[in-house]
């Protein structure tokens, strides 16, 4: 069982005529789309895919977080020390931990969380994340593990590609740069399936993404200093959404400024975020959450002077079409020629657990969401 994430691979990228390998797998198996969990960010959704829990429950509520139980520390995905600190991860049980506990050897190439000791366990084989390692080399690492003797060979592999997300951010989702990254990622998938074929290995493949990508521009900017003085609150995160911790004694001022009608942005107290987002109870969510219209960015003039707004972004409303992520499944236990309805990405977890043959943990996902993909 090989679970593959192509970061930022929007569902409709598969319709551009530049993915011969993925398109072949889709024709030979099942194809659909998944709706990311809220917020539509990388770390929250990668943990959702391997736990079936929404971020509000598994605790990775953003790529940038603070936690009252871990004072003085800000979690960021670029900080190796926080990424490897189990305290940020231990609220949930990734599928590789469940698999290892049930006797299935697991391996991971760069899946977020795999280099962290979560609940005292890791995959048998894992690597420290290195973005400079090309997609082809990542595939070759997987194939090398599959060349091990049967008693050492992994039965569950999670494989992560990042190039489509990087290109989407830099060049935008409708750019030639993005299309080139999509084609390279597709070629890596072809390298993997060829490697499986020449080895005579049958594998169920579930190929998906954490989120899609929306185009942004300087013309669609919300400058927060025009709404709220800098000293009034700490902005934990900004961009496709904003999280805010009011300064002590200035709570009422912050609420008056934010919890009102804005032309291109809506703000809520954390406990009043709309129910469809399943978000707003975890201790790591700041008191106020602001969501702009898809394609609009919450920022400051200082930030824009350092890095002009261009390209693409994600984190927006997961119900926006631009945030939908691809889903392709193919293998001996996948039905052929199935078109799946859009499902919540929590449903990927029970599907992969069934294909892997392990008893899953309790989750927010339902096998019924993707059961039509199964051929057994």
From TrEMBL:
Gene3D superfamilies xrefs: 3.30.1360.180, Alkaline Phosphatase, subunit A
Family matches, as InterPro entries: Alkaline_phosphatase_core_sf, Phosphodiest/P_Trfase
Pfam entry (one): Phosphodiest
PANTHER family xref list: BIS(5'-ADENOSYL)-TRIPHOSPHATASE, ECTONUCLEOTIDE PYROPHOSPHATASE/PHOSPHODIESTERASE
Protein name, entry field: Ectonucleotide pyrophosphatase/phosphodiesterase
């Amino acid at each position: 069982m090989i679970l593959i994430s192509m970061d930022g691979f929007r569902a409709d990228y598969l319709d551009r005529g530049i993915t011969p390998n993925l398109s072949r797998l889709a024709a030979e198996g099942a194809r659909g789309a998944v709706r990311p969990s809220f917020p539509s960010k990388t770390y929250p959704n990668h943990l959702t895919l391997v736990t079936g829990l929404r971020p509000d429950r598994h605790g990775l509520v953003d790529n940038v977080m603070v936690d009252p139980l871990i004072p003085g520390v800000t979690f960021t995905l670029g900080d190796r020390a926080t990424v490897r600190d189990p305290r940020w991860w231990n609220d949930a049980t990734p599928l590789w931990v469940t698999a290892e506990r049930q006797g299935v050897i697991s391996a991971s190439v760069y899946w977020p969380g795999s280099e962290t000791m979560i609940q005292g366990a890791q995959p048998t084989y894992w690597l420290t994340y290195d973005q400079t390692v090309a997609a082809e080399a990542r595939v070759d690492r997987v194939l090398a593990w599959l060349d091990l003797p049967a008693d050492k060979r992994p039965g569950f592999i999670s494989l992560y590609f990042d190039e489509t997300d990087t290109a989407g951010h830099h060049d935008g989702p409708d750019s030639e740069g993005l299309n080139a990254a999509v084609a390279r990622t597709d070629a890596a998938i072809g390298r993997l399936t060829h490697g499986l074929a020449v080895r005579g290995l049958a594998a169920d493949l579930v190929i998906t993404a954490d989120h899609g990508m929306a185009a942004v521009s300087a013309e669609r900017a919300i400058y927060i200093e025009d709404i709220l003085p800098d000293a009034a609150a700490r902005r934990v995160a900004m961009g496709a959404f904003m999280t805010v911790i009011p300064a002590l004694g200035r709570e009422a001022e912050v609420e008056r400024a934010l919890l009102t009608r804005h032309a291109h942005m809506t703000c809520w107290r954390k406990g009043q975020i709309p129910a469809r987002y399943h978000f707003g109870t975890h201790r790591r969510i700041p008191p106020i959450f602001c969501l702009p219209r898809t394609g609009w960015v919450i920022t400051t003039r200082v930030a824009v002077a350092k890095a002009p707004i261009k390209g693409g972004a994600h984190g927006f409303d997961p119900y926006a079409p631009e945030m939908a992520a691809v889903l392709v499944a193919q293998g001996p236990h996948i039905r052929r020629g199935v078109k799946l309805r859009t499902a919540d990405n929590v449903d990927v977890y029970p599907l992969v657990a069934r294909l892997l043959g392990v008893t899953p943990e309790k989750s927010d996902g339902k096998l019924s969401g993707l059961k039509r993909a199964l051929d057994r």
